[in-house]
Amino acid sequence: MTVAPGPTVVLGDRFATELPELAVRWRAEDAPAPRLLVLNDALAGELGLDPAQLRSEDGVRLLVGAAVPEGATPVAQVYAGHQFGGYSPRLGDGRALLLGELTGADGRLLDLHLKGAGRTPLARGGDGLAAVGPMLREYVISEAMHALGIPTTRSLAVVATGRGVRRETVLPGAVLARVASSHLRVGSFQYAAATGDLGLLRRLADHAISRHHPAAAEAEQPYLALYESVLQVQAELVAGWMLVGFVHGVMNTDNVTISGETIDYGPCAFLDVFDPASVYSSIDTAGRYAYGNQPIVAEWNLARLAEALLPLLAEEQEAAVAIATEALNTFRRRYSEAWVAGMRAKLGLPAGLDDTVATALIDDLQALMRENRVDLTTFFRRLGDAARGNAEPARLLVLDLAGFDAWLERWRAAGPDAAVMDRTNPVYIPRNHLVEQALSAATDDDLGPLQSLLEALARPFDERPGLERYAEPAPEAFGSYVTFCGT
User: Fold this and answer.
1) Under 8 Å CB-to-CB from 71, ≥6 apart: which residues?
2) Which residues pair with 115 in a beta bridge?
3) Helix (H) or strand (E) holding 139
4) What are the two backbone dihedrals, phi and then psi, of residue 265, each rounded to the nearest 5 degrees?
5) pLDDT digits (tens, 9 = 90+) for 33-78
6) Which whole-number Å values give the CA distances from 57 to 10, 113, 158, in the listed order?
7) Quick one: pLDDT at residue 247?
8) 109-115 sheet: strands from edge to edge
9) Do 258 and 185 meet the contact criterion of CB atoms below 8 Å apart?
C-alpha cells in the first residue's frame, strides 16, 4: 500500500505578528487516537492542499494541531463581546486555535483555525473540547450556506480525537478544522478599545482594512469607510439569512465578523414553518435572537462596533458620535435594499416592475405566509410551478385560499420569471430532522447518512430524482426542535 507523504503546508503568522496583544501563543492538546471523519476535498483543492496528503497520518495530525508546520505560530485570539446583551470584557478562544494563515489561489490570506483543540488560557472554566455532533453540525451547515451563496466560514475537516467529552453524557470528542477570511470580530475591536491603547486600536483597524476592505484605505476618512464597509457586508449577510430562513441563534458581538462571513454554527437551525418568533436555541429563553429579530440585533451589534471605533473617527467625542450615528443610520436602508432585492429574485419579479407594486406584493405575501404558517422553502419552490401555470402545489400549502388566490392573480400579472426563481429558491436546505438523523448516526460511527446529506446540499437549487426525502418538511413526530451550543 502506498502511503501519501505528510502535507507541506506553509502557514503565515500575520495576525500574531501584527497584533500580539490580541494573541496568546498556545498549542493544541494531544489527541489520543485521531481519526478522520470527513474531509472537504473540494475546499482542500481550492487551498492548494492535497486531499490524499491530508488523509495521511501526518495530515490528520495537522488537522488536530498535533503537527504544526515549521514557522507557524498557533495562537488563541483574544476578544471581548456582548453575550445576550451583557458585556464580557475578556472572552477569546477558549477551545480554539488559529494555526496560521494560508494563501489562497487568488492571493488572499485565509485563516486555518481549529475548534475543540483543548483548553487555552481563555477557557474560563470550560474543558476546551468539542463533541463529534456539534462539529459535524458546523461542517454540514457551513457547507450548505456556502452552496446557497451566503458568505460563511468553511469547514475543511472533522477529526475524531479518541477522547471522551463529558456533557450530559460522555460523547466522542472531535476537532473541526475551518477556514475563514479571518476571525476578526466586533468583539476584537471592543477588546482593543477597552485597553485604552489607541495605537493597538489603529493597528487593528489597519489590519482589517488591509485584509477585508482595502478600498477604505484610499478614502478621505479610512476608518469611517471601514465602518461603512462592515455595515454593508453585514446588512447583506443578514438579509441572506432571512431569505433562506436561517436562524443563527447566538448573535453575540463576538460572533459578528468584520469580513461579513457567518461564523460559529452553534444553536442554529433553518425554519420549517414560517414564523418570525421562531427560536431554536436552548439558552435563548427570552427570544432575543429569534428569526425575526436578526436584522434589529445586527444593527445593535454594529452600534457596539461604532462605539469601539469612536477614537479613530474624530478627536472630539461629540464629533465622533455624530459621525458614527450618521453612518449607523444607513444600516436599515442597506439591509432593506439587500432584502428587497433578494425577495424580488425569489418571486421572479422583473427588474422594471414599479417598486411600490413590488413592495406591496412582498409585504402581502409575508403576511399570508405568517398567517398560514407555510413551510418557507417548499412554498417558494412551489411558487415556481405557479409561475409556469400550475398553482396547485403552492395552494396545497395554504389554508386561506381566497387570500392566496387574490395575491396570486396580482403576482402573475407582474410577469414572474420562473427560471430566476429556480436559481434563487433552493430545493434542499439542511432540514433540522435530517441534520439530527445524520449527526446521531455519525456519533455511532455510521457516516453514510451524513455523506448522503452533504451530497444533496452541495447543489441546493438542482432538483434531482431520488432525493425527494431531502426536500420534505419534518414529520409531525419530530416535534418542537431545540438546539444546543455544544459546550
Assistant:
1) 10, 11, 13
2) 96, 176
3) helix 132-147
4) -90, 80
5) 999 999 999 999 999 999 999 999 999 999 999 999 988 999 999 9
6) 18, 19, 14
7) 97
8) 23-25, 75-77, 96-103, 109-115, 170-180, 154-166, 35-39
9) yes
- For residue 8, the model assigns a pLDDT of 75
Q: Beta 81-83 vs 86-88: how paired, if at all?
A: antiparallel
What grid cell was written down for 432? 433540522
Residue-wise DSSP of 3-51? PPPPP----B-HHHHH-GGGEEE--PPPPSS-EEEEE-HHHHHHTT--H
Res 338 pLDDT > 70: yes
Mutual angle of helices 331-346 and 222-244, in 10-degree steps: 30
List the catalytic residue out of 13, 93, 111, 254: 254
Q: Which residues partner with 265 through β-bridges?
A: none
Q: Check if 254 is active-site.
A: yes
The yes-or-no verdict on residue 105 having pLDDT over 90 is no
pLDDT score recorded for residue 2: 38
Kindly give, in sequence order, each residue whose CB lies less than 8 Å from that of residue 485, ignoring residues fewer than 6 positions away.
Answer: 134, 250, 266, 267, 281, 282, 283
Any bridge partners for residue 113, and if so which?
A: 98, 178
Report the C-alpha gap between 243 and 248 in whole angstroms.
13
Cell of 62: 495537522
Where along the chain do its domains lie?
14-180, 186-339
Closest to 124 (Cα-Cα) out of 94, 80, 85: 94
pLDDT of 382: 97
pLDDT at 168 over 90: no
Give this prediction's pTM.
0.96
